[in-house]
Amino acid sequence: MTTLNPYLNFGGNCHEAFQFYKSVFGGEFTDLQRFKDAPGNHSPAEAEMLMHVALPIGGVTLMGSDRPPSMGPVTSGNNVHLSLSPNSESEAARIFNALSAGGQVTMPLEKAFWGATFGMLTDRYGIQWMVNYQPPAGA
After folding, report:
1. For each of the chain's 139 residues, which pLDDT tens digit applies?
2. Which residues have a Cβ under 8 Å from the Cβ of 34 and sit 6 or more positions away?
3. 32 CB-contact burial (10 Å; exposed 0-12 / middle 13-18 / buried 19+)
4. How far is CA 15 from CA 52, 63, 82, in A?
5. Residue 64 near residue 18, CB atoms below 8 Å
6. Burial class (CB in 10 A: 0-12, 13-18, 19+), 40
């Protein structure tokens, strides 16, 4: 079964926002990565921004990241994605291809440096989606 999680984008204060959400909802971060942990050259300011954070809340996981200035400004409407986590790579491809039909692929579905198959798109209705298939450990 595919899971659906809200994904929030921030203009540099993602860590602050998620500390706040953690204080409200409790729990612990299950993932926290900074841009400096990713391949590529990042400015010193961008290097410390959050690339990904995850906070389980009930049956879903609230996810987020900072949007570096090089990716354009954060404005209402581009600061939320729906993040899908399918059970298989074939299901990830099926969902990605179906949602992107008539829409715009932002990042093609391909192997990512963290070991997942990942892609981003905006569907024909303007909704932003992330598809992330993470194979089981040892697979």
Report:
1. 888 999 999 889 899 999 989 998 899 999 999 999 999 888 888 999 999 999 999 889 999 999 988 888 888 777 889 999 999 999 999 999 999 999 999 999 999 999 999 999 998 878 899 999 999 987 6
2. 47, 48, 49, 50, 51
3. middle
4. 10, 11, 19
5. yes
6. exposed
CB 88 within 8 A of CB 33: no
Q: How is residue 78 annotated by DSSP?
A: S
> Using one digit for the tens of pLDDT, what is the confidence trace for 87-116?
999 999 999 999 999 999 999 999 999 999
d(C-alpha 65, C-alpha 15), whole Å: 8
User: What does the alpha-carbon distance between residue 67 and residue 13 come to, in Å, rounded to a whole number?
Assistant: 10
In this structure, how many other beta carbons lie within 10 angstroms of the beta carbon of residue 111?
10
Q: Which one-letter DSSP state was computed for residue 77?
A: T
Q: Any idea what the Cα angle at residue 12 is, between residues 6 and 18, rounded to 5°? A: 45
